[in-house]
């Protein structure tokens, strides 16, 4: 079933990465041309999203209009790890939801409840991924075994601090401190799982020039675009956040909700790519090579199409992202209680 859904995802996710590529529409088909020659066609009805992942890629106004009418998002991701644009039709702009969001931001207790949920989900998913990796690395890799043991022992103590965080000024800093201390243990497990197949100097965000961090950062950009769309569909303001500090022109609520999904969607995908010795590389300026970006996008999309059992139902991961955004909106309106997404291992 998962193999079938991954095959469907390959067909439904149209990714354009080669400079000089033009996407147009002919009847009910989307047509990709390069040097005025048709290189790919797809029934428009089957396409769920379009990603422009390189400069020099263009599309027609007819395609934009069709996508807006049929709810197909157009995502623009640059050659490093930045989401440059998310083009979609005006979605649910529910005043009731956004008013509830603003009220919660002014209420420390309400903000803490949501922010704590994001951190708890991230830590538990990091633990789940570490245990999953342990199925393959624990017996044959002493460094991994030691790192996992430290995560399970010391990490449990850090996780136990979450319920004790109080709704006082500075609670966000306390939550981020907990997240950071847990992450230092988690990334040691992650690095050991790579088993020397790629250098991993530790987690580096913007400006990273090593392969593993570049893969992680680029994968998070792809995930960010999906979370952004989910928040819009739920009627939430992606720029009004509970855990991360609000920043001008930054979709900080995306960063909040992404926390739960980073390990299960991106970290797991990157670990698999590296340990299976997939063809990956960097360009001279430190950016991911085009082929590596293409492969990573495809694998992340396949992972998003994976079905897992969650709260008694079988759901694809990209559907769970939307479920969590909708649950957050319901929580803020007082109609449900927000519970973190935690994947199985």
Give a summary of the structure in a few sentences.
Helix content is 52%, strand content 13%. The chain has helices at residues 2-12, 61-70, 95-105, 108-137, 142-159, 171-193, 211-233, 252-258, 262-275, 290-304, 317-332; strands spanning 13-16, 21-26, 29-34, 37-43, 49-52, 58-59, 74-77, 83-87, 307-310, 313-316.
Topology, please?
Blueprint: H1 2-12, E1 13-16, E2 21-26, E3 29-34, E4 37-43, E5 49-52, E6 58-59, H2 61-70, E7 74-77, E8 83-87, H3 95-105, H4 108-137, H5 142-159, H6 171-193, H7 211-233, H8 252-258, H9 262-275, H10 290-304, E9 307-310, E10 313-316, H11 317-332
Parallel strand pairs: 1-5, 2-6, 5-7
Antiparallel strand pairs: 2-3, 3-4, 7-8, 9-10
* C-alpha geometry: globular
H/E order of the elements?
HEEEEEEHEEHHHHHHHHEEH
Strand content: 5-15%
- Please count the beta strands (DSSP E, at least 2 residues each): 10
